[in-house]
Amino acid sequence: MDRESQKNDLEAYWMPFTAQRQFKASPRLFASADRMYFKTTDGRDVLDGVSSMWCCNAGHNRPRIVEAIRKQAGELDYSPAFQIGHHKAFELANRLVALMPGTLNHVFFTNSGSESVETALKMAIAYHRVRGEGSRVRLIGREKGYHGVNFGGMSVGGMVANRKMFGTLVAGVDHLRHTHGDPRNFFSKGEPEYGVELADDLERLVQLHDASTIAAVIVEPVQGSGGVIVPPKGYLKRLREICDRHGILLIFDEVITGYGRLGKPFAVDYFGVEPDLVTTAKGLTNGVIPMGAVFAQAKIYEAFLQGPPNAIEFFHGYTYSGNPMACAAALGTLDTYEEEGLLTRAATLAPYWEKALHSLKGARNVIDIRNIGFIGAVELSSVASEPTKRGFEAYLKLYEAGLLCRTTGDTIAFAPPLIAEHKHIDFLVETLGKVIASID
Ligand code: PXG
Questions:
Q1: Ligand 1 center from residue 255 Cα (angstroms)
Q2: Above 80 in pLDDT, residue 232?
Q3: Does 124 sit in the ligand 1 pocket, CB within 6 Å?
Q4: What percent of the chain has pLDDT above 70?
Q5: Ligand 1 centre and the CA of 152: distance in Å?
Q6: Could you read off the pLDDT of 272-293 as tens digits, one per residue?
Q7: Were both Cys, which of 44, 85, 89, 225 would link to 322 (CB 3.0–4.6 Å)?
Q8: 224 CB within 6 A, ligand 1
């Protein structure tokens, strides 16, 4: 095969989370991107309605980030991650803890959201062990939760399709009930009114397993992949209280909510609830270079510092933890966020966004609309025998109409870059309205 045919042969690449046959029969290919828009290989503009995969929070082709990567490549392309350091990793950790409230003041670097989750789960179990509570090994997740695709995250996760093909998963995991679907909450603006008592489900699991066996509870403050499920008022605070009562660590998975999505730097600030560990990725580097970061409370980091001083305290890490190129991209990203006020800009956009999105109430097949910060979702009723049919049709039609979204089942989700202006929101809602109206 010559080079040109190799480039155009779609067969060899087994694509992630993709309908291979549908895609390869009619591929969607991007050629370039700038700020709010992609350009397709056939020259069309597509508005990035979901920050690509909830990660390009500052939009595309941002000069600070591009420059930082260019410069870093010629200066220090790689440096070993274990037992040796380089300045940018320390600088980045310091910048990050300065953004995070409370005493979440230590950072462990990973390369993705999935790895951040594995890291946090391992930290939680090991933390109890180093404190002499080695019986605390159980992990609690939540139905409809998404914590990546590795074994730990998949096990605490609660999306059936992501779990059912992969055996018995990690042992000793249980799940809280999800908070989706109370009809009294349909078309809520922001946090829904009803359902705080669903947090008491944690008490049920404590009764069942005994607190002495439970290491941690992990939740997304706002469930993203599960369909933009916003927590009922007071829910996260109550989870925190129950965890405290029973010595259970609380982990917030902020892979989506982190770095400004809700109008505060983190959901920790937005909800005023301080967990013990926070997992992040995506917006950390604006999606440009893979990187994740786990924030840990000082008490957790310090608990590990025992034994002979030359012994490794936590046997965990990745070849690319704190990779110099990723650190440079993250620093360029934080510069961009700070210079342009992007970590709080969603708060300014939220009222306009909320009003625009909820104008679709009453549109064909729309059974719910949910929003918080600069996230929103429109849920369509499912065709009885074919759930996901309407959602996927909407995805394809929106793409054809020049708008990128994500769908989960029959829920269409949006989280545009935080640099969006009102005209982008107007285009998004108008296009969405037209497409919804065209779906049977
Ligand atoms: N935790 C959460 C809360 C996530 O949303 C991960 C962990 C895993 O991150 P990595 O970097 O390993 O993919 C995620 C990822 C979607 C969508 O459209 C969401 C994610 C990824 C791709 C698509 O719902 N979230």
A1: 7
A2: yes
A3: no
A4: 100
A5: 14
A6: 999 999 999 999 999 999 999 9
A7: 89
A8: yes
Mind listing the pLDDT tens digit for each residue in 54-96? 999 999 999 999 999 999 999 999 999 999 999 999 999 999 9
SS (H, E, C) the chain: CCHHHHHHCCCCCCCCCCCHHHHHHCCCCEEEEEECEEEECCCCEEEECCHHHHCCCCCECCHHHHHHHHHHHHHCCCCCCCCCCCHHHHHHHHHHHHHCCCCCCEEEEECCHHHHHHHHHHHHHHHHHHCCCCCCCEEEEECCCCCCCCHHHHHHCCCHHHHCCCCCCCCCEEEECCCCCCHHHCCCCCCCCCCHHHHHHHHHHHHHHCHHHEEEEEECCCECCCCCECCCCCHHHHHHHHHHHHCCEEEEECCCCCCCCCCCCCHHHHHCCCCCEEEECHHHHCCCCCCEEEEECHHHHHHCCCCCCCCCCCCCCCCCCCCHHHHHHHHHHHHHHHHCCHHHHHHHHHHHHHHHHHCCCCCCCEEEEEEECCEEEEEECCECCECCHHHHHHHHHHHHCCEECEEECCEEEECCCCCCCHHHHHHHHHHHHHHHHCCC
Distance between Cα 43 and ligand 1 center (Å): 29
Residue 348 has pLDDT above 80, yes or no: yes
- Atom 9, ligand 1: residue with shortest CA distance: 113
Residue 290 CA: nearest ligand 1 atom is 11
